[in-house]
Amino acid sequence: MAADGGSSPLQLPCVFSPKSRQYLALCAQDGRLRVWNTDSKTLQQEYVPSAHLSATCTCIAWGPCRTVKEGPQRKKRKSEAVPVEEKADLLAMGTAAGTVLIYSTVKGALHCTLQDGGHSAGVNCVQWHPEESLLYSGSDDTYIVEWDLQTGKTRSKWKADRAAVTSLCVSPDGKLLLSAGHVIKMWDLDTKEVYRKFTGHSTAVTTLRFATSRPPDSNGLYFLSGASHDRLLSVWQVREDGKDKNSVVSFTLTDEPQHIDLVTSNSKDEAVRLAVVCKDGQLHLFEHFLNGPCKKPLSPSCSVQMSDTRESPMPIPLLAAALVADTRTVLLAYGSHLQPVMERVVRTNLPSERHVCLTRDVQTSLSLSLDTAVSKVKTPMVNDKSKILIPGLPGHQAPVKGSEKRKKGSDTKEMSIAERLGEIDLSAALAEKEGPKGTASLQTDNFAVLLVQGLESNDANILNEKKLREDLIEFM
């Protein structure tokens, strides 16, 4: 999954917020959106769409940063400057159902749903316009839709190709749009007509990024592309004379790209910095001056792998990487999508070797990043000498042993009626004889009761009982 809002079925959508890189947004397979704070390394927000089971997130992209005033508003003198900051707010999520969800991190809720007049198949990529309130989406239905975010309706819709649209990218000045399936097309956003075509990938293109801002000279405009099952990143030059059919530079990778981040170049004297996370979990860092064609593919200046600290080390997959523009710092996200670990690594602190392996204890990092406010489970402080009382019966209670199941063919003899009479609670007789204190004992050998039951059942054991005979002789 590319950072530009493209998609890949092998990787769950994952992208850092622009500029400050303060947030990391991840979408799970069940449609849940989780936003992590990279500074505090805690879960900031979690959103579950109402129809999340049928609206699997396929791509995600942050909107342009908004200018937000810091602190509460109060009256200030004209000479005092109001502190402001640029903060990422809106997130666009494409779904397999063909809808586009706009989520607001400020409100912590869904901002709007883009659906009417849109796509009839799953959305593969979403891209924001850098200056206007517009959003572009590409789908399996081979169409590109231009959405007006102020009205929530389609502003324009056109057929991009005979194949599905798998990736989109808007130029820094907002005048050009790149779209790709198997063929890369550059569109003029004013006329919605094809400006250029680029061919070179044999599989579906999953990543498109502009490497330079558009200079006064059109020959200085570069962009890069990556495709599935392709271990090369291609760099293309947009020439004014139209002689730009082949890529001018290639970057070699160990596997197909999953996440890409770069710092664009504004002039020939400024190098392009590139960070690529591949499917195999490795990170490759590149730095190159784009000033024309290069015959040989370029190798990374540094490759980073991660492993745990066990006796038999196991690799830790890297999920995403971001380059901090003003410093030589690389922001890493690795581990699990459910609980990613975020870490800032300074390039100067890395070993001088071109291949670096960083060992980390993931379990310790996870325990340190657990936020009690998110889990909402608080453990009370309990003194070691305190006793805990639980509900129950007073005093000691002997365990109740369950009755054993009677086995078939056992030697246990059936009880006689006389023996059963000794265990029957004659409630009627007791009710008459018991006093208010209820201290009367059970009387199972009453003459009248035994005589009646013995005669009715014709049981010789009862009639021949010694006590019954003595009472009968005395009665006679």
Automatic annotation (TrEMBL):
Q: Where in the cell is it found?
A: Nucleus
Q: Main site of residence?
A: nucleus
Give the Gene3D superfamilies listed for this entry. Answer: YVTN repeat-like/Quinoprotein amine dehydrogenase (2.130.10.10)
Q: Which GO terms describe its cellular component?
A: nucleolus
| Entries under SUPFAM superfamilies matching the protein | WD40 repeat-like
Placement of WD repeats on the sequence:
116-157
Question: Which protein are we looking at?
Answer: Uncharacterized protein
